[in-house]
C-alpha cells in the first residue's frame, strides 16, 4: 500500500472512530441543557447545573482525533535523552475521559480549603530569595559594568528573567543582557572580546558559547558565588521581565500563586522544556491570565489600558500601562484567599480548559481561539497542544514544546493536583511530593 492510500485509510479509520465517540458523547449529553462556557465564566464563576455545550465538545473531540492522526503521521525528528527518561515515566496513561472532565468541572471547592492558607504561605515565604541574595546580585552587576564600560562606554547591563521579574526562587543563577545600541554588531565577536575581558578580571569558569542559538558567556563570580549567563541585545527579554515585574506589584496573590505553582511544577517534573513540558515563564503567564479572569478580576490587563510605557524591539511594539502603583487596590473586591486560588487554578487546568481550541492571552486578558492564531496544526517540531501566547512576540506559543506524550503527562498532573486539593486530608504533603521515575 503506498503512502497516500495508507494516509486515506488512516484518515477514514480516524473518522469512523470519531463517529463512534461522538455517538457515545451524544448519549452522555442527552437531556442536558447547553452552556456557552466562555473563558471568563469557566475560571470566574461557580456553576451549579451540569450544563454542556454540545457543539464545543463536538469540536474538541473532532480536533483531538484528527490532530492525533496528523501527529502520528509525522514522527519526531529528534531522538535524545528525553526519550530515554520517558521509558521510565509511566505517567500520561490515566488522563480523564471527556465525560469525567465534564462531570468534575462542576464540583464545588471543599468547605475547609482555607486550612491550607497558612502552610501555602509558609511554602511561598521559604522560596523567596533573601534580601542578602539580591544585594549580591546588585554587587555583581556593578562589578561587571565597571569592566564593560571601559570597552563600550555607552553599554549597560540589565538583569532579566526570573532573577529580576519577581518570580525567581532562592539560589537561582542570574541572566544578564549587555545592551549595545549599535545595530550592526557581530554578537559572536562581542562575546569573544567580552570573555577575554572577564577572564582577565579573574572571573571563574568563563565560557564563550558563540555557536549557541543565542550566543552567551557563562561565568562564576568568586566573590559572590553567583553563576551568570550574559547575552547580547536580548532587549525583548528585558521588556518581558519588566512587564512581569509590574504585574507582580499589583497584587501579592500573583507572586504567591506563581511561586506555589512553579514549586509544584518543579517537584512533579513538569517544568523542563527540554523534556517537552512548560517553562517557568509559561507558568507565570498562566497565573497572570487566571487572575485576570477571576470574578471579580484580581489583575487588570495592562496592555489593554492607556499606554504609559512604549518601546520598539526588533520591530515588535511593546506598549502597556506601567504606572502600577495606581493599581494597588484593583483586586480588592475579590476576597479569595491563596488557598482558594490554588484550588481553582488546578481545577481550571484539570477540568475546564479547552485544550483543543483555546489560547490563553494576557495581552488581551481573555481566551483566543486557535483558529484565530492559525495554531491548529503542527509546523516542524512546533505543536500547539497547550497554547500560551507571548504578550509581545505574539506569534510565539510558549506551549509549542509540549508534544503528544508530555501533554498527557501535564494534564494527568493537573488532574492529580486537583484531586489532592479537593479530597486529601493533608493536601500540601502530597501536592508537592517529588516525582521519581520508576
Explain the layout of strands and helices.
Layout lengths: L2 H27 L9 H6 L9 H20 L7 H6 L11 H7 L12 H11 L3 H21 L4 E5 L13 E6 L7 H14 L3 E6 L6 E5 L6 E6 L2 H14 L4 H15 L12 H13 L16 E5 L2 E5 L17 H15 L5 E4 L4 E4 H4 L13 E2 L17 H18 L3 H5 L7
Parallel strand pairs: 2-5, 8-10
Antiparallel strand pairs: 1-2, 3-4, 4-5, 6-7, 8-9
Helix pairs in contact: 1-3, 6-10, 10-11, 12-14
Structural class: alpha+beta
CATH class of the largest domain: Mainly Alpha
The largest beta-sheet arranges its strands as 1-2-5-4-3
Strand content: 5-15%
* Count of distinct structural domains: 2
Quote the CATH topology of the largest domain: Poly(a)-polymerase, middle domain
Radius of gyration: 24 Å
* Through-space gap between termini: 40 Å
Amino acid at each position: 500500500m503506498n503512502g497516500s492510500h495508507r494516509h486515506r485509510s488512516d484518515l477514514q479509520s480516524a473518522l469512523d472512530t470519531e463517529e463512534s465517540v461522538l455517538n457515545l458523547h451524544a448519549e452522555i449529553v442527552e437531556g442536558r441543557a447547553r452552556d456557552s462556557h466562555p473563558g471568563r465564566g469557566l475560571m470566574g464563576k461557580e456553576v451549579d447545573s451540569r450544563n454542556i455545550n454540545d457543539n464545543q465538545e463536538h469540536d474538541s473531540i473532532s480536533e483531538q482525533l484528527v490532530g492525533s492522526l496528523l501527529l502520528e503521521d509525522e514522527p519526531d525528528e529528534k531522538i535524545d535523552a528525553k526519550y530515554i527518561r520517558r521509558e521510565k515515566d509511566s505517567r500520561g496513561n490515566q488522563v480523564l475521559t471527556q465525560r469525567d472532565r465534564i462531570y468534575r468541572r462542576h464540583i464545588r471547592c471543599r468547605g475547609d480549603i482555607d486550612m491550607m492558607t497558612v502552610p501555602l504561605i509558609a511554602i511561598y515565604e521559604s522560596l523567596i530569595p533573601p534580601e542578602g541574595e539580591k544585594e549580591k546580585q546588585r554587587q555583581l552587576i556593578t562589578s561587571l559594568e565597571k569592566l564593560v564600560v571601559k570597552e563600550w562606554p555607552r553599554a549597560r547591563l540589565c538583569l532579566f528573567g526570573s532573577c529580576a521579574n519577581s518570580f525567581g526562587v532562592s539560589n537561582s543563577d542570574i541572566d544578564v543582557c549587555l545592551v549595545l545600541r549599535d545595530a550592526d554588531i557581530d554578537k559572536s565577536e562581542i562575546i569573544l572580546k567580552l570573555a577575554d575581558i572577564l577572564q582577565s578580571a579573574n572571573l571563574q569558569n568563563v565560557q564563550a558559547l558563540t555557536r549557541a542559538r543565542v550566543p552567551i558567556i557563562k561565568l562564576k563570580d568568586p566573590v559572590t558565588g553567583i553563576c551568570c549567563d550574559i547575552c547580547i541585545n536580548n532587549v525583548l527579554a528585558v521588556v518581558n521581565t519588566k512587564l512581569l515585574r509590574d504585574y507582580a506589584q499589583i497584587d501579592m496573590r500573583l507572586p504567591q500563586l506563581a511561586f506555589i505553582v512553579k514549586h509544584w511544577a518543579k517537584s512533579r517534573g513538569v517544568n523542563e522544556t527540554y523534556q517537552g513540558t512548560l517553562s517557568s515563564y509559561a507558568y507565570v503567564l498562566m497565573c497572570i491570565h487566571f487572575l485576570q479572569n477571576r470574578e471579580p478580576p484580581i489583575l487588570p490587563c495592562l496592555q489593554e489600558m492607556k499606554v504609559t510605557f512604549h518601546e520598539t524591539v526588533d520591530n515588535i511594539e511593546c506598549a502597556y500601562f506601567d504606572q502600577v502603583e495606581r493599581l494597588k487596590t484593583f483586586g480588592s473586591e475579590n476576597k479569595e484567599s491563596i488557598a482558594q486560588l490554588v484550588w481553582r487554578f488546578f481545577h481550571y487546568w484539570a477540568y475546564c480548559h479547552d485544550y483543543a481550541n483555546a489560547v490563553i492571552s494576557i495581552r488581551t486578558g481573555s481566551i483566543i481561539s486557535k483558529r484565530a492564531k492559525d495554531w491548529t496544526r503542527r509546523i516542524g517540531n512546533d505543536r500547539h497542544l497547550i497554547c500560551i501566547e507571548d504578550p509581545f512576540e505574539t506569534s510565539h506559543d510558549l506551549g509549542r514544546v509540549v508534544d503528544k506524550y508530555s501533554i498527557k503527562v501535564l494534564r494527568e498532573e493537573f488532574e492529580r493536583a486537583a484531586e489532592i486539593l479537593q479530597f486529601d486530608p493533608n493536601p500540601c504533603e502530597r501536592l508537592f511530593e517529588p516525582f521519581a521515575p520508576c
